[in-house]
Amino acid sequence: MITRGFQGRRSQSETKRLPPGQHLTSDFPVLSAGPTPHTPLHEWTFALEVEDGTKIVSWSWEEFRALGPTEVTVDIHCVTRWSKFDTDWRGISVDRIFAAGGFEEPPSPFVMAFCDGGYTTNLPVEDLMEGKALVAWEYDGEALAPEHGGPARLLVPHLYFWKSAKWVRGLRFMEDNEPGFWEVNGYHSYGDPRREQRYDGD
Amino acid sequence: MVTRGENSGTTVIRAPKPVAWQSATVVSIREETRRVKTIQFAVSNWPSHLPGQHADVRLEAEDGYRAERSYSIASPPEVSTLELTVDRLDDGEVSPFLTGQLQPDDTIQLRGPIGGYFVWSAFERRNPLLLVAGGAGVVPLMCMLRHRKLSGSAMPAALLYSSRTRADVIYHGELTALARSDPTFMLQITLTRDSAPGWSGRVGRIDLPAVQALLDGLGGVADSFVCGPDGFVEVASALLMQSGQPGAAIRTERFGPTGT
């Protein structure tokens, strides 16, 4: 349905590269449900856990960064409709985290990413494997700012950006696909931008 | 929409989920400030909303090009039309159209309500309400205050509202009238750019004493909702933490651009 008089501003190249309903921004907007946590690096750990929260393995900040970093350049898409092209990140791939934790194969089909501030998000394990996801601590060559998720955030760029959990502190393996924080609060369980899976039921 | 929790005896309010895209017809447009307009829509299939939720707007050009944005809902669930208050971003694509070209009887596409965390309902037994707004961040908080008034809630509430100039204060008359008529509502407007002739209110950026004074007035414990530009929300939520409010009692909503 046409809106009388609306022309819009567009470029063909942008329009093709953007998922539906998104627009390009050169800023880096922030989406957070609550205050920004500030965790000192000497208290920071990253853990893999079984479903009841028992730790399988845990790394300190220094140990974690020594697992072998990867750099990626990716487009990111926030459910609030901004997208940003060619963002540069440095972190540890989830493949490498699982391998360092002693897993040739992940032990469950889903994980819950858990974070400082109580934030969580659920993901199928296969969406984190084969180079599709990092735990990143550097953005655009700089230490990741706290409001953007520092010390480290999950980076799963092929899903809406709320899945790239800020202030991430670990992954908890789970058999069933339990919803995380935003997923309980009305957002889609999977969140594929190409299929516009914004809200529960999309 | 209101379900009684079986175990705790408390009332749990669930935010309505968004319905499909639908046509929304403009009923009226009123100017709030030189940059901000409130657009009143008639929507046929609206599942109601909770204060704090937003709506997605879709505009479509003749060649099929679409642009979509989210806007906070300003009207309380008690009224039958839906109002969005829109701040014109000079370099924006959608807000200049909504505030400059849209006319009564025009139709747009609308979807909502969206969001289930940054919400407040007077029917849920909670702590006093502390609202902290930067600029157009006052819109979803005004929705909460309107709902609080129309529902007859006796829950004490306070609004700390930071605005650049007096002329930029949205809902100024309504807020002032509410503060005069309701002894359980405290209003603190602060101007950051100029104090304007005759302005007897606060000037300067929000700070710890300002936050603490309102918290003390509410009895020291509150459910806080902070909405505004990114930098403002970062500062305001940090001040609330410094005032001893637990992180879980502080809900934030930010809008871009970041302006850095």
pLDDT < 50 runs, ≥5 residues of chain A: none
How many β-strands of chain A, per DSSP? Answer: 11
What share of residues are in beta strands of chain B? 25-35%
Strand order in space, largest sheet of chain B: 6-5-8-3-4-7
Mean pLDDT of chain B: 91
Helix run count of chain A: 4
* Strand count of chain B: 14
Query: Could you tell me the radius of gyration of chain A in angstroms?
Result: 17 Å
**Nearest-angstrom radius of gyration of chain B?**
18 Å
Largest sheet of chain B: 6 strands, antiparallel
Largest binding interface between chains: A-B, 39 and 47 residues
Characterize the main sheet of chain A: 6 strands, mixed
Instruction: Tell me, briefly, the overall form of chain B.
Output: globular
Structural class of chain B: alpha/beta
Give a quick precis of the structure.
The complex is a heterodimer of chains A (202) and B (260). By secondary structure, chain A is mainly β.
Account of the 3D structure:
With 202 residues, chain A is mainly β. Helix content of chain A is 11%, strand content 31%. Chain A is built from four helices and eleven strands; from the N terminus they run H-E-E-E-H-E-E-H-E-E-E-E-E-E-H. Chain A has helices at residues 12-17, 61-65, 94-100, 181-184; strands at 23-24, 45-49, 55-60, 70-77, 82-93, 110-115, 120-124, 134-139, 142-143, 153-155, 168-174. In chain A, strands 1, 4, 5, 8, 9 and 10 form a six-stranded mixed beta sheet that branches. Chain A has a five-stranded mixed beta sheet with strand order 3-2-11-6-7. Chain A is globular. Chain A starts with 11 loop residues before the first helix and ends in an 18-residue tail after the last helix. Chain B has 260 residues and is of the alpha/beta class. The termini of chain B are far apart. Chain B has helices spanning 95-100, 138-150, 172-181, 208-217, 230-242; strands at residues 2-4, 11-13, 22-31, 36-43, 54-60, 66-72, 82-87, 107-114, 129-134, 157-163, 185-191, 202-203, 223-229, 250-255. The longest helix of chain B has 13 residues, at 138-150. Chain B has a six-stranded antiparallel beta sheet with strand order 6-5-8-3-4-7. In chain B, a hairpin with a 5-residue loop joins strand 5 (54-60) and strand 6. The model of chain B is unreliable at 1-9 (pLDDT under 50). At the A-B interface, helix 4 of A face strand 5, strand 6, strand 8, helix 5 and strand 14 of B.
